[in-house]
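hey so i finally got around to running the thing on that chain from the lab meeting. sorry it took forever, my laptop kept dying and i had to restart like 3 times. anyway pasting the input first so we r on the same page abt which one it is
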Amino acid sequence: EQLDYHPLVADLPIETAVEVESHPERFPGTRIVVDTRRVYPHGQVAPHLVGYRTPLDDEALHERKQRFQHGDPLDYRRGDRLGRTGLEKYYERQLRGLRGERKLELNRRGEIVRSEVTREPRYGQDLVLSLSLSLQQAAEELLDDCLDHSHTDEVNGQPLPTPPGGSIVAIDVRNGAVLAAASAPRFDLNLFVDHDQGAWEEALSDPRKPFLPFLNRAGSRRFGRY
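ok and heres what got predicted. didnt touch it at all, straight out
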């Protein structure tokens, strides 16, 4: 525990990071770590399909160490995120890159006298979906309308029961490409990035059933290529 590094500040300005790395003697025991973060500009669009990631816990890391005793090929470390559902899980190996490594030689004043790259970084691959954004949004709006408003039977005029959830899947019959895969109710993928406690409580407090927004009613299959 005493030998491990622990996060102190996230989203450090580049000017501050440069200052710390340029003068390590002023910040003993401190290092700058470059990390990646998923960005979800359409956080509420197709969250079940895209899937989410969560940090690996100590138990998962221990299992990987036991499995890869000569070194983890994907170099997972404490705090790294792993795809848990959807495309994030299915294409984890392709989407994940590999951090680079370098060896530093310091003098007694903590100044860098030699730097050697021991492993080049590797970027993760891109994933291209067959999904149509406009069609996906239209399907989700239809589901939202069904779940949020009461409707009347056009035949007998009686009110229809409000369903607890639903799904819409649209497939191009010419080539089998999935154009839309909507599931409702849904959640915002940024919940797993911003750690908004209020938003979490709202997502988990669905009166119909706990965790209902996280249930994928559209099923699972391959929606992309890389």
